[in-house]
Amino acid sequence: MVVTVDVKLPEDSELTVQEVDLSAATLFAGSFHLGKYCEHANNEFMLCRMEEQDPRKCINEGKVVTACTMDFFRKVKKACLSEFNQYANCVDKSSGDFSLTQCRKTQGVYDKCMLEKLNIERPAFGYFCEARVHDTKRPKPPVEPKAVYPDATPALPEDREKVPARFGSRFYWMTE
Q: Sorted alphabetically, which PANTHER family does this protein's record hold (predicted)?
């Protein structure tokens, strides 16, 4: 990636946060409840990324997502550690692609523990695919004006005669 002198890159101290050092199986096992628990922080981060089109402007929102993830796994560790470990171990060992189908019994035990002790219900199938409106306190970024180039090629005048294409339209099959 080419970076010019005008680009301000964040300092290392701005980027340093405690990392989520968990295995893929552990993240797969906790993903549904984690997504529900940190839904607001995740939506805020993704809205920032889509609106700003610059990841440097969303560093603080990313830190909030990481902090929420760490908080979630700390709560799981205090409340449902043995159930979660059994489920994550099943996800890890039952298939090569972290498939959840072989682990429905341990999933049920884990889901019941999460509902009883942390009051987090496993979201229904397709929950994260539903369209939602996210209310944010962050101001909307200003719309960048369209670039005007002084040496741009001038357009053809509108009153000029428009002759048909020499070999016909490339959309000849759409005329029927």
A: NADH DEHYDROGENASE [UBIQUINONE] 1 ALPHA SUBCOMPLEX SUBUNIT 8, NADH-UBIQUINONE OXIDOREDUCTASE
Taking a C-beta distance cutoff of 8 angstroms, is the pair 98, 24 a contact?
Answer: yes
Is residue 174 a part of any domain in this protein? Answer: no
Q: CA-to-CA distance for 176 and 167, rounded, in angstroms? A: 18
Distance CA(107)–CA(125), nearest Å, equals 14
The domain in which residue 24 lies consists of 18-135
Count: domains in the chain = 1
Residue 115 lies in a domain: yes
CA-to-CA separations, 162 to 77, 167, 175, in angstroms, rounded: 73, 15, 20
Please report whether residue 11 resides in a domain. Answer: no
The kind and range of the H/E element at 155 are none
Tell me the whole-structure pTM to 2 decimals: 0.77
Task: State how far the Cα of 47 lies from the Cα of 41, in Å rounded to an integer.
Answer: 10
38 φ, ψ (degrees, to nearest 5): -105, 25
In a domain, 38, yes or no: yes
